[in-house]
Amino acid sequence: MKSKQAGITLIGFLIVLAVVGFFGYMAMKLVPAYTEFMGVSKAMTQVSTEGVDGKSLDEIRRDLMFKMGFQYVDDATIQPQDITIDRTNGPQLHVAYDKQVPFIYNIDFLLHFQKSVPLQGNVSLN
C-alpha cells in the first residue's frame, strides 16, 4: 500500500521560520517600550492616589519623575514639558510622549503614548 506523505517542505519551513523570526524580532524591539509605558502608568496612579493638595505643577512633575525612577523609566523618555495638568473635567494629570525605536537599517518605529489620571485634591495655580 502506498502511503501519502503530509507535511511541510524544507522551503516552506524556511519561509515560516523567516516570518516567525521577523515578528519575534519586532516583538523583541517593541515590548520594552510598552513595559516602560506600564511603569509610567503605575507611577501616575501612585501620584494621583497620594493626593496633590496645594502642590504646584513643578512639584507634581518632580514627584512623578521620582516615582518613574523606581519603575525603570528612562530619564530621556519623558521630558518635564510632556507632563501637564488638564483642568477641563476636574484636575487630571496628563502625560503624552513619543518614543522612537530603531528597527532595521533606516526603519524606525514611532510610538505615541498618552494617559490621563484624575488627581485627588486641589492643585495650586503656581
UniProtKB/TrEMBL annotation:
<dbReference type="Pfam" id="PF16137">
    <property type="entry name" value="DUF4845"/>
</dbReference>
<feature type="transmembrane region" description="Helical">
    <location>
        <begin position="6"/>
        <end position="28"/>
    </location>
</feature>
<dbReference type="InterPro" id="IPR032314">
    <property type="entry name" value="DUF4845"/>
</dbReference>
<keyword id="KW-0812">Transmembrane</keyword>
<protein>
    <recommendedName>
        <fullName>DUF4845 domain-containing protein</fullName>
    </recommendedName>
</protein>
<keyword id="KW-1133">Transmembrane helix</keyword>
<keyword id="KW-0472">Membrane</keyword>
